[in-house]
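Regression test case RT-17, inverse folding.

Input:
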C-alpha cells in the first residue's frame, strides 16, 4: 500500500467517523472517531490534545482528497459540550443538601414551644387566638414608670403570674388581678374591683371567698425589687368566666398588706402599681 493510498483511506475513514460523531456529541462518539481514524494522538488523555489531533487529521484528509466538508473539522469541538453539561448535575446536587438542611434547623427550634403550648388546648375557640400565645402585664407606677413585666399562664386550676419587678416600696403589699383592663394613673381606679366572676367574698381566709383575682402578698426586698411567683385560686384564660373577657383585666399592687379576709380588698390601701393584661392564648 502506497503512502498516498493509505492517507486517502485514513482520510475517508476520518470523514465517515466525524460525520457519525456529528450525530452523536457524546465523548464516547469522539473517542470512537479517534480510534476509527487511527489518529496517533488518540491515547492522549485530555480532550484538547485529542481535538488538536483530530483537527490535524481532518486537515490532512482534506488536503489529500478535498472531500472533507470544511465545517466537519469543527465538529470535535462539540465534544467539549458534554463535559461541561456533565459538570452541572453535581452542582445541582450540591445545592440540594444545603436547602434541605436549613428548613429542619428552623423548624426544630420553632416548633416545640408552639406544639407544647398548643397541645393541651383542643377546643376550637382558642385556635382563633394562636398567633400571640403569650399573655403579659407591663407594670407601671402612679406616674407611669415602668416597673417590669409579668407573664401570665394557665396553670392547673388557676392563672400563674411570674416575673421580676423593681422600683416598689420595700415591704408587704396586697396583690390582685382586677376586673378591667385599664390602668389610668395615679390612682388606677379604672382597673375596677377584683376579678370575681362568681361573686364570692374577698380573701383566702374568708369563708365566703375567695375572688378569682386574689393572690398572696408580694414581699418587696430592701432593694425595691421582688421576684413574683403567684397563682390565682381559680379561673381560666379563655372560655367561661375567663380572664381574657370583653373588658380585659389588670394586675394591681397595693400600698399595704392584704389581710386575706376583709371585703372588698383586704384593707390593702391605695393602688401603687398597675399593668393591663395583654395578649392571648
Ligand atoms: Cu387589688
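Golden output:
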Amino acid at each position: 500500500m502506497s503512502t498516498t493510498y493509505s492517507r486517502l483511506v485514513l482520510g475517508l475513514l476520518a470523514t465517515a467517523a466525524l460525520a457519525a460523531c456529528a450525530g452523536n456529541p457524546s465523548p464516547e462518539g469522539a473517542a470512537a472517531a479517534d480510534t476509527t481514524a487511527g489518529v496517533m494522538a488518540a491515547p492522549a488523555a485530555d480532550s484538547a490534545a485529542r481535538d488538536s489531533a483530530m483537527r490535524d487529521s481532518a486537515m490532512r484528509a482534506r488536503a489529500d482528497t478535498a472531500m472533507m466538508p470544511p465545517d466537519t473539522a469543527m465538529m470535535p469541538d462539540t465534544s467539549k459540550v458534554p463535559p461541561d453539561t456533565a459538570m452541572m448535575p453535581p452542582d445541582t446536587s450540591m445545592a440540594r443538601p444545603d436547602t434541605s438542611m436549613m428548613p429542619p434547623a428552623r423548624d426544630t427550634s420553632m416548633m416545640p414551644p408552639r406544639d407544647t403550648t398548643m397541645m393541651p388546648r383542643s377546643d376550637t375557640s382558642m385556635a382563633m387566638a394562636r398567633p400571640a400565645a403569650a399573655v403579659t402585664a407591663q407594670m407601671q407606677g402612679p406616674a407611669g414608670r415602668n416597673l417590669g413585666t409579668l407573664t401570665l399562664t394557665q396553670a392547673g386550676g388557676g392563672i400563674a403570674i411570674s416575673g421580676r419587678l423593681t422600683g416598689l416600696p420595700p415591704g408587704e403589699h396586697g396583690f390582685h388581678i382586677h376586673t378591667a383592663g385599664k390602668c389610668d394613673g395615679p390612682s388606677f381606679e379604672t382597673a375596677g374591683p377584683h376579678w370575681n366572676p362568681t361573686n364570692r367574698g374577698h380573701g383566702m381566709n374568708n369563708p365566703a371567698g375567695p375572688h378569682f383575682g386574689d393572690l398572696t402578698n408580694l414581699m418587696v426586698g430592701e432593694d425595691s425589687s421582688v421576684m413574683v411567683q403567684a397563682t390565682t385560686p381559680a379561673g381560666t384564660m379563655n372560655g367561661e368566666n375567663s380572664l381574657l373577657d370583653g373588658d380585659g383585666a389588670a394586675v394591681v399592687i397595693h400600698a399595704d398588706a392584704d389581710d386575706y379576709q376583709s371585703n372588698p380588698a383586704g384593707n390593702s390601701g391605695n393602688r401603687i402599681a398597675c399593668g393591663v393584661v395583654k395578649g392571648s392564648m
